[in-house]
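User: Predict the full complex structure for these chains.
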Amino acid sequence: MVMMHSLLAEGIGVQNWTYILVGITFTLYIGIAIWSRAGSTKEFYVAGGGVSPLANGMATAADWMSAASFISMAGIISFAGYDGAVYLMGWTGGYVLLALLLAPYLRKFGKFTVPDFIGDRYYSNTARFVGVICALLVSFTYVAGQMRGVGLVFSRFLEVDINTGVIVGMLIVLFYAVLGGMKGITYTQVAQYCVLIFAFMVPAIFISIQMTGNPIPQLGFGSTLADSSGTYLLDKLDGLSTDLGFAEYTEGSKSMVDVFAITLALMVGTAGLPHVIVRFFTVKRVKDARKSAGIALLLIVILYTTAPAVAVFARTNMIETVSNKSYAEVPVWFKKWETTGLITFTDKNNDGHIQYVADKSKNELVVDNDIMVLANPEIANLPDWVIALVAAGALAAALSTAAGLLLVISASVSHDLIKKIINPNISEKNELAAARLSAVVAVCVAGYFGINPPGFVAATVALAFGLAAASFFPAIILGIFYKKMNKEGAIAGMVVGITAMLLYMVKYRLGWFDDVLPDKSEWWFGISPEGFGTIAMLLNFIVSIVIMRFTPDPPQEVQDIVENIRIPSGAGDATH
Amino acid sequence: MTDKEKAKAYWKENIRYVLILMFIWFIVSFGAGILLKDALNSFKIGGFKLGFWFAQQGSMYVFVVLIFVYVRLMNKLDKKYGYDA
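Assistant: Here is the predicted structure of the two-chain assembly.
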């Protein structure tokens, strides 16, 4: 008690606060995992199939909101201005597609995984195998980024080595994903949603009050400044941006066709991501699948409508704090982030001041997207516990998504590959063991990429959405809404769609086909690789339908299945 | 009505709902937030240019409403056709 008292008197400090909050949340996750461990493959893959719509909505929201949503998105928007809307609309609009076009029918179909649907609907193990490959590609590219996020938070806030951070994160995820499977993951994700949304909202509300006097960030960034000048915050930021040579914040700089294509690719990609779709297999009835999609989106939109406000606050604060200020007098947070290499300052004209301008030859300051959310509370001088809370929230976001992805990877291997293709006679007990073993291997691979990130990780996250858009989305939509779609059409469509997407990414994002990366002006129709998923998806639809016209109809029993999944009643439990 | 006719009629009504809601989905995001952004930006609500607001706020609120409207419509439709068991 005496010690507590003296700690409080001196101020506990950001680092101790971080240890306390991260310690409490990690204990909570482990406790939940022990309480909800899985005993059967059904519990391991779909949490037993009896999850309530509210719990599933919360779990889906945490599953979906990754380190990218929590840490990077507001930062990206704050540098991209209007163009950041591609992520906001793209990553939420996909849920409308999910709720209206996919979730209810996939729930009625009643299987464990997405490749399962592809394999059964298209009566072909070739189709199933293509599905497994797509699921693995998408999930691995994603999970490496989550591990990196965990490492980043540990290294900055607890001042441990970034690799140690990745390993600690691996062990935690390993513990509850392997032990609890989908059941453990679902209930830890419910807790993680609460932690992450609280951690995101508290600093946003503080800063909104500070800057505009309005406690609701969504309204705050459209309000006038608190300094009673009567100027709107957005007008001020537009002015600051143009003064420094950037485009007006509310206008952006991407072409309209590219904004359109990227938004659509992200929406369709979202609806085609296996770790999101699989969450709708865990509820009891078809109507629960629809409802939990709505709840999930509502919970996601709380964060997603706050992020653009945070972006505006952070950008305005940052420009005002550092632009044309003397380097010798920068605040403490600036120096701390410099040591992580995420802020760099090169005094090109040797005047000792920081010139932050659009002109690359004169600009002296480079700020990584990823630190805007993490550094924001420090920039705004918020209390230590708020800064620590952001660290705990970022970890919750990264861990919940990583766990969801690992489950997709392990189910794809143990269920779709081993049980359905290699050894159909495997016993329930051995399949469960195989699922756990593949989860362990997947965590190790993800950890490896977290510690040794290949140079193209950032580029491949966009690829994950493009891949999902180009492969799963058309195959599932046609499988539900087009009774006559056959295996020849679907397989050809998926292969052509994915290949087109891969080739375009390799040529125009990675530049492996040429000596130098081809210029923007060579993009097809002016569409960036991030937006090419839209074209690849259209290609998939066209190829599927054309090939179908020249090949035999699907067997009658498959057509009967399609008629059956359109009717919501009598959705049984998910089965093998 | 036979079971088959019933299923067909149910599916037709469902598709009609989906098409109407998807139309609104398209209008608020790709329409107001992207294609018509510049025109809408000449209007302001508070400090927001309207096109910018649709792109970074409004479209997302409408998305949430759309899903809950669909949930309600479909729960009613399920009842009407006796598929709510």
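Confidence is low (pLDDT under 50) at residues 1-10 of chain A.
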